[in-house]
Amino acid sequence: MSPDRTEGTGGAVPGSAALSRPGLRGREAELERLRALVEAVRDGDGGAVALLLGEPGIGKTALLQEAVSIARAHGFVVSHGRAEELHELAPLASLASGLLHGDPPLLSSTDFADLAGHHGQRIWLVERLAQLIEERSAGTPVLIAVDDVQWADPLSRFALGVMPARLLSSPVLWLLTSRNDPEPYGQEPRTTTLPLRPLSDTALAELARDVLGGDAPTRVAELLDGTGGNPFLAAEMLAGIAASGANAPEPPERLVLGVRDRLADLRPDTLHFLRIGSVLGRAFSLADAAALCGRPASGLSAEVDEAIAAALLHDDGERLRFRHDLLRQAVYADLAPSVRRALHREAASRLVAAGRSSTDAVPHLLKSAEPGDQEAIGLLGTAATDVIAVMPDLAADLAVRALELVPPHAPMVFDVGERAIVALTRAGRYTQARDTGDTLLARQPPLDVFARLQSVLGDTLWHLDDVHELTRRSTAALAAVTDPTIRARLTARQALARSRGRDLGAARETGERALAEAERAGDREARVLALWGLGEIALNAGDCAAAVEHHTALSVFDTAFLPEEAVARIHLDDFDTVRRLLRTAGDAPLRPAMLSWAQGTLNMGLGRLDDADADLVTAERLEADLHVPGNLVNIRVNRGLLALLRGDREAAREHLDVVRATVAERPNTGNHATHQYFEAVVADADGDHAAAAELVRSVQRDHPFLRWRLLRPHVVQAVRIALRGGDRNLAEDLAAQAVEHATRNPGVPTAQGAAAHASAVAKADPGLLERSVRILLTGPRPLPLAAASADLGRALLTAGDPGAATALTRAHDIYAQAGADAEADRVRADLERATSRSGRRAGGLRPRPGQGWDALTASERKVARLIAAGHTNRSAAEALVVSPHTVNTHLASIFRKLSVRSRVHLARIVLAEGDTGTATGR
């Protein structure tokens, strides 16, 4: 017995039925667990994920097929797909192979065509796909099985990493097999990982009896021990022994030699056909093999028949397939490396000549192209362009490989290199993009090429937040450029860089010049950059009307910038228009993370703290799905400020820890300023007022371009921090800035009211407090009104004015309704003094529990009722006029608070609560 295989490995489950039979020897325990998962999902226990892991030939596919049979017998609709090694460039091919070809198919071809039309928006596409699967599973449990996910295309990998969590409350079982641990798929709490171990000696002996018809002789047992417990190798060996005896080499050499023995008995034409097939992949079409053989498909019937008779291939009705990938690898390994390379290169050329797409040819080019191969360079570039919208990381790899194939001094190196910089930047590989560009610039290209490279590197440097270098390079390139389009783009990049500087007037002039140049050149990219830059400059200067003007023009020109227009209008207090904008965005395939951020910003303005927090959680999750957490610092700072309003300092510190780690990992100017302000607020809450004031002072001193953008909604809080830290000059400076901001925005109630409030706090002027409250009563933001009312009430209370109770009551009620429990409790103490009725609100607000029905927010209760009434996430979102992503967030929180696993369990709880809400959630 091998020392690494115990007698118990692969044995039966104690007390279980005897499940072992030919083809599944030694897999009783794993099969029992899969059967239990199938039954749990069928019985309404929610979704689940099962991962079958192990080396080639270990039995993953056999176990998957058995689980598929069990699921079908239990009434599941089954999608059974397979990833192919050479299909990595075909977006969603691995999932589509099963979704479209079931009996019945899980999705219709019309559904899939609709998805394909939006493949450039990964989040939208996966959300829509999840909606379709959710709808399909409403009446019938669903099994989605994908074999060999280690070869899945990037979009399928992305979908498989996101959708199981999205569909956790639906009766959907995901069954995946892989040679290694596919980490993104194994993070859900209901993931069962089944690593398939080598078969035990007992299981191997049963396998030998199946094949040989009796107990295995000692020599056969010794040979079986050499298979390492791999069932496929053992079965192949036993088949060979059954045919020719036991005197042969031991595996793994035996497999290659055994296949070679079978090949030696074949006709030369069949042998050549199989070798061609091994180059094309485990599954291949007869037409492709015929093209590579240079023969008509009709002339290969004899070769196909002989290969099938030799148990090397089988015909699944659509394609020919090697009976096991180890067989294909054995045939492939028998080819000399130079022959393999030549066959791959020939395969690529013939596929292109036959009219196939670059995605079919490029996998072969990656295995065969040599430096200077012009066709390969062109096809790699075309493939990178084709997939960049949906698989940017793969596009970057292809573009870099194309660049590697270009001879160093070939004129085309700059064009190919430019595409590589763009792809690397799009994939978020900014440092590599910059290094690639610098390598090309070191070759001293012609001046126009120099300017063009600096233009594309401008986007890279912006993402690296290296605005100093962006300014330096764009200035140098502008001195050399003659192309008006490149000039317009460089000027727009320069305007963006200057939006981060101290002279915003000069930045505005640069932006206006860039816009004029873009319009003269008729260049879309330059126009977008110029409008974006002008909008950023206006926001940083505190000119809300100009920011709305530029961002509106930008979103009309390119709807992807609708969230920026929404945020600009929020600064203008134009909440009604923002609501309409977000409703019109609806289910459009825009930028869902930024839309959720805009919705969260609106809800914060409206004082809906629970909903704002849910929106921010949604935005963070969507960014995490894409692995581009560009807004994480802003998200966590705002969630931390919300936590402090609720009185949850522990949560605020947890958010601060995330902010610190993020800034340390990816420092940039904007993140640093936001981080410093949050540190100040937390330090002030902890009683370290001097440190808090110094942090606010540093924001003012070091980041002037952000003072309006950052402090505008928090200026009164910043004035308080300065006063508590003993810095009256800082407090007065902040109040003066608020007055200046109000002067720039005369029609914005919040700007006017905040200026009066900040000045009132800095000067201890009750008259300004009264003016602040009057102004804020005309605006749309309840929380600034509550803060001003609380300060006015305290001032009146000190003066003995009976009007104190009215102001304090207004403040308390607003805070209580918003869920700002800490602020409400602080006001309550003053209110009791004002009314001289200490028991009026004795005990303060009852904290919301962490678990149970009473832990749900108002929005979560609405979602719970809708889901319990049979709504899908999509239809619930439509009923509540929110995005499906937000419903996903609410549902995850509901399940956590109620400790339920499925919609069935949730419906029971809603029914038991007898909640008075209507089925519409209103």
Describe this structure in words.
The chain is mainly alpha-helical and 922 residues long. Mean pLDDT is 87; it is low at 1-20, 248-254, 837-843 and 918-922. The N and C termini lie far apart (68 Å).
Estimated helix fraction: 55-70%
Structural class, by secondary structure, is: mainly alpha
Strand order of the largest sheet: 2-3-4-1-5
Cα Rg: 33 Å
Per DSSP E runs of 2 or more residues, the count of β-strands stands at 8
- The fraction of residues assigned to DSSP E strands is under 5%
- Rounded mean pLDDT is 87
Short description:
With 922 residues, the protein is mostly helical.
Characteristic key phrases:
three-stranded antiparallel beta sheet, five-stranded parallel beta sheet, disordered C terminus, mainly alpha, single chain, globular, 922 residues
